[in-house]
TrEMBL record:
Pfam family, one: Methyltransf_16
Protein name, as recorded: S-adenosyl-L-methionine-dependent methyltransferase
Organism of provenance: Coccomyxa subellipsoidea (strain C-169) (Green microalga)
GO MF term list: methyltransferase activity
Keyword Methyltransferase applies: yes
Keyword terms: Methyltransferase, Transferase
């Protein structure tokens, strides 16, 4: 459950009755945030929404003046599993937020589900043994679709990482809205001490040194679409992965193929090489349109092991 302290850490909120702030019964909280107020408990007023299916609240980071970012719920069916995504209602509003902040290097498109994430989530739900009982980290999580699937598939611990705090707020709310009960409050820090919660969010910038723990499984979706991202991602993943772990990467087949090829070569050229163990191309249908997605699995080379790629899905 998102606590008062977590909300106070980043937002000041006003709503209906002050007494309602004591009744934080779940993740679906409607609230409006305003800048400039002192962070006193009695200024946090949160109320249960009357139209939860259509609108769960309005978020306003303190630096945004009087603009507001409205969140909505979207139901996403992945096989037999329904996920509930909490996302900004308007992508353009997210872009306006970045422009207002002067963050011209930020990409607002994390705020929508993408076929690569859906394809990887589907793989995880179809083959839960990949993550069951293991510690999992998703790089560039966005709305956290693959991470949520990993929790539902029985992962011991899942850490969603992204450099965008609002993405992590939405991802954690999505996890809670999808029925996951052990969700940590988001804290605006990089890799805090271990948490007892099954899923949590951590800030992670690919271009900065990685100081966090290692994981059994690392998930990555749509992380190779920019040429300048390939090397930082290629340098980061081996630092996150445990010696016996695996990386699962999903990427659109027809987009920036040269980046994917460079990434594979880079992994095989490491001091301790990472081999492309399994690879397959699948078709993912979203909104009536078919998308070709490449699913790849990497692991650290063991001894004299040679490259031998097999299909990830059979």
């Amino acid at each position: 459950m998102l606590s008062q302290n977590a909300l106070l850490q980043r937002f000041v909120a006003t709503g209906t009755l002050a007494s309602a702030a004591r009744a934080l019964r779940g993740p679906h909280l409607a609230f409006t945030v305003r800048p400039g107020a002192a962070r006193a408990i009695n200024e946090l007023q949160i109320f249960e929404p009357t139209r939860r299916e259509n609108e769960i609240g309005q978020l306003l980071p303190e630096t945004l003046g009087e603009e507001r970012l409205t969140l909505q719920e979207q139901r996403l069916q992945i096989g037999s599993q329904e996920l509930v995504l909490v996302e900004p209602a308007d992508v353009d509003a997210v872009m306006d937020m970045y422009i207002h902040r002067g963050q011209m290097d930020r990409d607002p498109y994390w705020s929508r589900p993408w076929p690569s994430a859906v394809a990887l989530a589907k793989l995880i739900l179809q083959q839960p043994s990949i993550v069951a009982g293991r510690r999992v980290c998703e790089v560039g999580a966005g709305l956290g679709i693959a991470s949520i699937a990993a929790v539902l598939a029985g992962a011991k611990e899942v850490v969603m990482t992204d450099r965008e705090p609002l993405a992590l707020e939405c991802a954690l709310r999505s996890a809670a809205a999808s029925g996951i009960t052990s969700v940590a409050d988001f804290k605006d820090t990089t890799f805090s001490k271990s948490s007892r919660a099954q899923v949590r969010g951590e800030l992670l910038d690919w271009t900065e040194p990685y100081l966090g723990p290692k994981f059994d499984v690392v998930l990555a979706c749509d992380v190779l679409y920019e040429d300048f991202s390939v090397e930082p991602v290629g340098e980061l993943l081996p630092q996150i992965l445990s010696c016996s772990g695996c990386v699962l990467l999903a990427d659109p087949s027809e987009r920036t193929r040269h980046n994917r090829e460079y990434f594979v070569d880079m992994m095989q050229s490491l001091k301790r090489p990472m081999l492309l163990e399994e690879c397959t191309q699948i078709e993912e249908v979203m909104d009536g349109k078919s998308y070709s997605i490449e699913l790849m699995k990497f692991h650290f080379k063991e001894g004299s092991e040679s490259v031998g790629v097999k299909r990830l899905l059979t």
